[in-house]
Amino acid sequence: MAKPDPALLDPARYPFAHEVTTRFADLDPNDHINNVAMAAVFEDGRVRFNVGAGMVRTETFRPMVASVAIEYLDQAHFPQSMTCHVAACDVGRSSWQMQQLLVQEGRPVATCRTVVVSTDGHKAVPIPDAFRALLQPWLLK
Predict the structure, then answer these.
(1) Is residue 1 part of a domain?
(2) Which domain, by its residues, includes 60?
(3) Lowest-confidence range among 13-22, 27-36, 58-67, 101-110?
(4) Which one of 11, 14, 77, 103 is most buried, by most CB atoms within 10 A?
(5) Three-state SS letters, the chain
(6) Residue 77: which CATH number?
């Protein structure tokens, strides 16, 4: 596994953060938070980011996840909480990316890069200007 870009491990670069409570049920046989639970934390962070940013799905604008890449950096443990940091980045014509950082007790435990495509529900369409403007304050610093 390649080492992550150190700049992506700085929580100050992310304009959105959400505290996550870990659950005993998410432990694996090695007593750390399992990979499926970590993926769910990233998903929850993306959705909370969308709500916080005011993203509203319409009949002609339906964002869809096209790709998710998670890099596990360290073990996460129960019962310590984690913080999911989220930012938008790499905004293109019909897609954008979301970069996330999961931190527990000051340690980066995972990163996630998600590609989101602007669709009309069936095919890719250009990102609406209003949504493009909405993303600006939420870009990775």
Answers:
(1) no
(2) 10-138
(3) 27-36
(4) 14
(5) CCCCCHHHHCHHHCCEEEEECCCHHHECCCCCECHHHHHHHHHHHHHHHHHHHCCCCCCCCCCEEEEEEEEECCCCCCCCCEEEEEEEECCCCCEEEEEEEEEECCEEEEEEEEEEECECCCCECCCCHHHHHHHHHHECC
(6) 3.10.129.10
Say what the pTM is: 0.93
CA distance 120 to 126: 9
Q: Exposed/middle/buried for 26, CB within 10 Å: 0-12, 13-18, 19+? A: middle
Confidence tier at 31 by pLDDT (50, 70, 90):
confident
The answer to whether residue 2 sits within a structural domain is no
